[in-house]
Thiamine diphosphokinase (Heyndrickxia acidicola), 216 residues
Amino acid sequence: MTDIHIIAGGPEQYLPDLTRFQRNNVIWVGVDRGVLHLISAGIEPEMAFGDFDSVSDEERMLISAKCNRIKQYKPEKDETDLELALDWAIQQNSSCIRIFAATGGRADHYFANVLLLTRQNVLSSHVQISIIDKQNQIAAYVPGEYSISLMPDRKYLSFIPISSRVEGLTLKGFKYPLENKQITRGTSLCISNELIQDSGTFSFSKGILLMVRSQD
């Protein structure tokens, strides 16, 4: 199945090396200034989304020249450009959606982008969706049991409750294990944990949980 990589319009300095994520089966999508990030990286976007109110006339002409499929919207709308692109990506029945350039810069955009991961249509899509920058990888989870593998360049793992509480949280294979623990929104109990073997599991029975994999 096809992977979809969405490049938002956040600060370029937070982008990882995008060539690491090049695959034969990847659709690259630019969102507003994210189209320029792709062009700068030497990657040709297959689609572009946005109102493009943050680009100059010259940059808009470059986007038109480099991308044949452009979905342009009026600046006055109810959704952000990234939300529109993510909704489209979910409808494509892809196996994985990775979002880049969605962190850093304005705090309102940063928080709104992360909370997109907790929308009902995202959580129920059964697609692996994550936000990735140079230091972090963020994903949201519904109740269940999940296996994770050690990532040397993302050794810290934090679990953050987005719902008012998360029940039955169990961590196995971690430096700081848990067994059937309830954690509430706002707690720092599950910040900066680490795997102590090649793989581990986490599970919970109720709530919505963010997992952040980070490096210093």
The mean pLDDT is 92. Residues 3-134 form a domain with the Rossmann fold fold (CATH 3.40.50.10240).
